[in-house]
Design brief:
Order of helices and strands: EHHEEHEEHEEHEEEEEEHHEEH
Mean pLDDT: 88
Number of strands: 15
Structural class: alpha+beta
Largest sheet: 10 strands, mixed
Distance between the termini: 56 Å
Helix content: 10-25%
Length: 306
């Protein structure tokens, strides 16, 4: 078995190497992570580093083959492979665009033995992830085909708004109404662990050194009696960014069981968040679309009284 090289995605920028490895390796003891780093089996950009080293977008993390978790648990069901193969909306020599279904995590971990990255590796051995979507979010995801393509696409998805060139547009249903048709939210975010031990993202104080810049723009497409159907554009790609910014506005997303305590949200079948439009500047200017899933259209029709 050969070592694998993992490119650091924009939303993992700033994360410590040891925590990144816990995420990348899934269910392994932390002591094993430290041993791999200490013995030089894990390297960043070809060099040995400390566990506390903070990663940046595009860093190349070498991870040795892991017998601890490389068993049959990584075997992806054939029906899932065929489902995702049928969800490919575009393919060219440099990249693949997939319409990810809700409920499928981008990466294994937290009790999951495989994720979309593993599915795509089974479909195309050259496929490399360059960004991610939350498990509950559906919609467009891009996979590079080869290392040079991954580097170019990761630059387009950079968390630095001055460098980012990819344009991402989401469709969401807010519980409540925006104060005006368009609202821009520019609030830093940080990750915490709540009293129950669950990871959460919260709005950080402007002077908090752990806060990461995040900006989202909400635009009302349709006003319903108790909800706003909106398009959301994000300039940064932080974890749970849209969900946390919407909750900070007092209009959390329908079906968000983490940031929306409302009983209506708990009764929803899924999170109402869909990555529906994606513009890529490389290797040429292209725009991709993924229609709103049937179950989300059904929610809108019900609220419209149809």
């Amino acid at each position: 078995m050969q070592p694998r090289e993992v490119l650091v995605e924009p939303d993992r920028a700033g994360q410590r190497l040891d925590n990144f490895l816990m995420y990348a390796l899934g269910d392994v003891p932390r002591s094993l992570v430290y041993r791999l780093i200490r013995t030089g089996q894990v390297r960043v950009n070809g060099g040995r580093v400390k566990p506390m080293r903070k990663l940046i977008t595009g860093d190349r993390v070498r991870i040795p083959p892991m017998r601890y978790s490389d068993s049959a648990s990584k075997k992806v069901p054939s029906k899932v492979i065929e489902q995702i193969r049928a969800s490919i909306v575009h393919r060219q020599p440099e990249l693949i665009v997939v319409d990810k279904p809700t409920g499928l995590a981008s990466q294994a971990g937290s009790g999951l033995s495989w994720g979309l990255n593993d599915v795509m590796a089974a479909i195309d051995a050259e496929a490399l992830p360059v960004h991610r979507l939350d498990r509950q979010t559906s919609g467009l995801m891009v996979f590079a085909r080869g290392r040079s393509a991954a580097k170019a696409l990761q630059a387009a998805f950079s968390a630095d708004p001055a460098a980012a060139a990819a344009e991402k547009r989401y469709f969401a249903l807010l519980c409540g109404h925006l104060p005006q048709q368009r609202v821009d939210v520019d609030q830093p975010l940080k990750k915490i662990r709540d009293r129950s031990g669950q990871h959460r993202v919260v709005v950080a104080d402007s002077d908090d050194p752990d806060g990461q810049h995040a900006r989202s723009s909400f635009y009302r497409l349709e006003r319903l009696p108790k909800h706003d159907f909106v398009e959301v554009r994000i300039e940064t790609g932080r974890t749970h960014q849209i969900r946390v910014h919407a909750a900070a506005l007092g209009c959390p997303l329908l079906g968000d069981d983490r940031y929306n305590p409302d009983a209506e949200a708990a009764a929803a079948s899924r999170l109402f968040l869909h990555a529906g439009v994606l513009r890529l500047p490389w290797p040429m200017d292209q725009v991709f679309h993924a229609a709103l899933p049937t179950e989300l259209n059904d929610v809108l029709d019900c609220l419209r009284g149809k």
